[in-house]
Every structure is written in structure tokens, then in C-alpha cells.
Specification:
This protein is an alpha+beta fold. It contains 8 helices and 19 strands. The longest helix has 21 residues.
Length: 425
């Protein structure tokens, strides 16, 4: 095979890069750099801090270090103003396994000695909305407003070790502790994933967390959660269940006479729950959000959703779903919290051997809903594997086929090249 073809095939395979999840960083290795801030990208799902680091020889090297997402940083009292250009800082953290001059920010120390850990709570913002009437004029429970799940943090405030738990639980444990019966977050310092020969594969490509049918097992074959197979690594919605509390972003609910609108802070998903429909219309166009109808059962909002595109219920634990997915959610308001609780049942007879159930809770948000888009600066690829279950944009397949055709054309061209004999040496 000619060198031209080999080069093209290397380029094709190299366009699928791994997302900067925790396993991309070697949290078993300590790193410390000092430099001057050049800029900050205060974005979701991860913010990035850029700085110039001057070595002992006077040479200046540009570095980039990953922080948590902008929304959760704001919830912790952080702001871009902490990192104005020209600010002198020292960062302690861990190196990226693959990218040079790239780090995981564990702790930042400013010139005046102020120290902030990755999960540091600079201040506790007040709830984003005032006193709430318990009911609307219609008599329905008032679930309108901005809601967010409690922040989740590693028990090590630096984010290097320990279990991943709600903030109120983690703050009562010793730094890096794992509660009885719990486990350290995969990829954290000292975990089996962090010490694996291929930590990325060990983190993402574990067995499915639920029993799958034969069709479901076939659908997940070849799925790589660390690639653009994973919708959220394409800055796309995963599904109505996963995204509601993912990254503890702020959601908004708007109640009207005949509908309830749910605006997700994660990936900008928007759903309309139709309260004036007794059944789903025929010929629903499949989508990530599906088609939702709802009714009040006493003080519980029961939401029935069908009409999904085939996709993924959870990339982290490898659960696919087909177009036959049927989800029933039950929203109930706890006025003492106030907290909005949701339980759900996801039934998919084509892919799942048994219904998938779960629950979650969100609270009155401590910052307003902003509807920030996704700007994933750690995952940029111009191509990706063919998506699972027929989902995903068709341009991925087109790009790969086009690339292979291009490689063939270049190979054919080398056959008539006068120095083709040298290229085979």
C-alpha cells in the first residue's frame, strides 16, 4: 500500500478523539504550574482556563486547564471576573494523558494567597425566585419556575479522589472518603479505571447496567461512549430522562392552561406536555423529546411520552433504546422543600428485558435559568463512527464514505506516479 493511502487512513482514524472525561486525566499524577491568565472560556459542559507559563529558560508555553461547567461554577459563586487576563495564578492538578500542556484544575492559588479548590463554594447564592404560591389560580400545584438538582461533588474538594455525592453529603465526609457500601468514582485517583492500561475504554465501555434483549445487545455492539457515538459529546440531547439532572444544570418549567413547557438547561432540550389531549396523535414525527401528553392525578402530574428516535438512555452505563420506547413520568411537589420529585418508568420491549425505573429530585434553583448552549472545547471531531441504533446525523456516514473514496482516488493516482517505486520502499 502506498504511503499516501496509509497517511489518509491515519487521518481518518485520528479524527475520532476522546472526550475530556475524568479518565482522560491521570489523576494519579500531581502537576503544578504557575503563569499568567490569557483568557477563560466560561462555557458548558466544561470551562477552560488559558494561561502562559514561563519556564526557567524564559520560554513561554501556552497551557489550558479544564474546570467544571459554567452553570455549576456560577452556582458555586465563581465568575469569569476571577480570571481576568493578566492575573497571576498557580494551578495544582493533574496532566492530560494525551494532550500536551493540558491539565485538570484541582486547586487554583492567586497572588494574594487566596486558594480555591475545584469544588470550592465561594458563596451560596440565594434562590433564583421569590416566595412561591402553592397553587395556581386553576387550583393546580404550582410547579412553575427554575429548578436544579443539588450539586454533586467528589468528596475530595480538589476533585482528585473519593466518591461522587450530593454536596450536602460530601461536606460531612473526610476529604477523599468513600462512604460504607459506596465506591470511588471511576477514574478518580487510585481506582481500577485510573490504573487500567486503557483508562478511557475502561471508563466508558463497561457492560450494560440492565438486561438487554438480543436486539438491544446488537444495538449497543460497537458503541463507544467516549466518541461521537455519544450524543452529549456531539453537544446533542441524550433523552428526557438523563438530561433533567445531568451536570445539575438549571431547568425551567412554564405552566399554561393547556400545556406545561419544560426547558432543560442541559443541551437546550425543550418539551411541551399537552394537557388537552387524551391520546397521542397518529404519525408523530420521532424526536429526542418525543410527544408528551399529561394529566393531573390529584396533585401529581402524570406525563406519558412516545414517539422517540432510537438512541441511548445512558451512555455511561450503555443502555440503548429503540423507537418503541414509552416513558411515564410522575411529578409531585413537596412544598416544604420546596422540591420537585420525579419518578419514571421507561418501557422498551424491543431492547430492554424489563422496564427501566428511576427517580430524581430538583430544588428551587439558586441562579436563574439561562439556556446556555453547549460549547464542548474538549471534543472536536470532523467525523465519527456510525451511530448506534440508526440515530444521529447522516453526515457522519457520508463523511466516512467520502473519506474512503478520497483515499482510493489518491491511491489510484500513485499507481501512475513516476516515483511510485520509491513510495513502496
Amino acid at each position: 500500500m502506498s504511503r499516501v493511502v496509509v497517511a489518509v487512513l491515519i487521518v481518518l482514524s485520528g479524527t475520532v478523539s476522546a472526550h475530556h472525561g475524568i479518565a482522560n486525566f491521570d489523576l494519579n499524577t500531581d502537576l503544578e504550574i504557575s503563569g499568567t491568565v490569557t483568557r477563560i472560556a466560561f462555557v458548558n459542559p466544561h470551562s477552560w482556563l488559558y494561561l502562559d507559563v514561563t519556564g526557567a529558560d524564559g520560554h513561554v508555553t501556552a497551557w489550558q486547564c479544564e474546570l467544571r461547567g459554567a452553570t455549576v461554577l456560577r452556582r458555586s459563586g465563581w465568575s469569569p471576573q476571577l480570571f481576568t487576563p493578566g492575573t497571576t495564578i498557580t494551578i495544582a492538578g493533574s496532566p492530560d494523558r494525551f494532550e500536551p500542556n493540558t491539565c485538570y484544575l484541582g486547586t487554583v492559588v492567586f497572588a494574594d494567597g487566596t486558594r480555591i479548590d475545584r469544588y470550592g463554594q465561594i458563596q451560596q447564592p440565594a434562590p433564583a425566585q421569590g416566595p412561591r404560591p402553592a397553587r395556581l389560580a386553576t387550583g393546580a400545584p404550582n410547579i412553575s419556575g427554575d429548578w436544579a438538582a443539588e450539586q454533586r461533588v467528589l468528596t475530595d474538594p480538589r476533585g482528585l479522589s473519593g466518591a461522587f455525592l450530593p454536596l450536602s453529603v460530601a461536606r460531612d465526609l473526610a476529604p477523599g472518603a468513600v462512604p460504607d457500601g459506596g465506591q470511588a468514582f471511576p477514574g478518580a485517583r487510585g481506582t481500577e479505571v485510573s490504573l487500567a492500561d486503557d483508562p478511557i475504554d475502561a471508563f466508558w465501555n463497561r457492560p450494560s447496567a440492565v438486561p438487554l434483549t438480543e436486539a438491544g445487545a446488537r444495538a449497543i455492539e460497537g458503541f463507544d461512549g467516549a466518541s461521537a457515538d455519544n450524543p452529549r459529546l456531539r453537544c446533542e440531547t441524550t433523552n428526557i430522562l438523563f438530561d433533567w439532572t445531568f451536570e445539575t444544570d438549571v431547568n425551567r418549567i412554564v405552566q399554561q392552561e393547556n400545556s406545561v413547557t419544560l426547558l432543560y438547561g442541559s443541551m437546550g432540550l425543550e418539551r411541551t406536555v399537552h394537557l388537552n389531549m387524551a391520546q397521542h396523535p397518529a404519525g408523530v414525527e420521532p424526536s429526542r423529546a418525543g410527544h408528551s401528553i399529561g394529566r393531573w392525578d390529584g396533585d401529581v402530574l402524570v406525563v406519558d411520552t412516545v414517539g422517540f428516535e432510537p438512541g441511548i438512555l445512558s451512555a455511561d452505563v450503555r443502555i440503548p433504546h429503540s423507537g418503541e420506547l414509552h416513558v411515564v413520568e410522575r411529578f409531585s411537589l413537596d412544598p416544604e422543600g420546596p422540591a420537585l420529585r420525579r419518578s419514571y418508568v421507561a418501557d422498551d420491549p424491543l431492547y430492554l428485558q424489563e422496564p427501566h425505573t428511576g427517580s430524581d429530585v430538583v430544588y428551587v434553583a439558586d441562579i436563574p435559568y439561562q439556556g446556555l448552549g453547549c460549547d464542548d472545547r474538549s471534543f472536536k471531531s470532523s467525523g465519527a463512527p456510525v451511530p448506534v441504533a440508526g440515530g444521529g446525523p447522516p453526515w457522519l456516514t457520508i463523511w466516512l464514505v467520502g473519506g474512503l473514496i478520497g483515499a482510493f482516488i489518491l491511491w489510484r493516482a500513485t499507481l501512475s506516479s513516476p516515483d511510485d517505486g520509491d513510495s513502496r520502499a
